[in-house]
Amino acid sequence: MRGAKGFGSRWNKPAGAERGLYRARDGVLLGVCKGIARYFDLSVGVMRAIVILLFLVTGIWPVGLLYLIAAMVMKMEPVVPFGSAEDREFYDSYSSSRVGALHRVKRKFENLDRRLRRMEDVVTSRDFEWERRMRNS
């Protein structure tokens, strides 16, 4: 129900798309409440009310500390929606370990470069030219 009003109506996801637990970029205070509300398909106002109620009931420090830990642990929401599972995997690996993700991209480009060099060697070899001439005659 894309046009429905109520809980979660502001976070319409494409059909069949998975969403992860991310901090919202447009949140009021670090985006934690909005990210959790989007993940559980709740209203942001209800989520904020729950957090404020927990602040008052348990005391400021326990919930405040948990809130800050959640802000540090949760990854920032991606700017552009994921196109595939590979995109999601790359974003998750990059946001958790940028060095590892960069090494993975470097290896991928090195493999592509190696394949391109092999193709160039085949195309520029004398045997390739000879076989092409034999097929055309």
Describe the protein's architecture and organization.
The structure is a single chain. This protein is mostly helical and 137 residues long. The chain has six helices and two strands. Strands 1-2 form a two-stranded parallel ribbon. Helix 2 crosses helix 3 and helix 4 crosses helix 5. The termini are far apart.
Principal-axis shape = rod-shaped
Largest sheet: 2 strands, parallel
- For the terminal residues, how far apart are their CA atoms? 64 Å
Indicate the radius of gyration in whole angstroms: 25 Å
How many helix segments? Answer: 6
> What portion of the residues fall into strands of 2 or more residues?
under 5%
Instruction: Round the mean pLDDT to the nearest integer and report it.
Output: 79
Q: Count the strands?
A: 2
Helix content: 55-70%
Low-pLDDT segments, ≥5 res? 1-11, 13-17
- The spatial strand order of the largest sheet comes to 1-2
**Helices and strands, in N-to-C order?**
EHHHEHHH
- Class from helix and strand fractions: mainly alpha
How would you summarize the topology of this molecule?
Elements (H helix, E strand, L loop, with lengths): L21 E2 L8 H8 L4 H15 L1 H14 L1 E2 L8 H12 L1 H27 L1 H11 L1
Parallel strand pairs: 1-2
Helix pairs in contact: 1-2, 2-3, 4-5
List keywords for this structure.
137 residues, mainly alpha, disordered N terminus, 64% helix, rod-shaped, two-stranded parallel ribbon, 6 helices, 3% strand
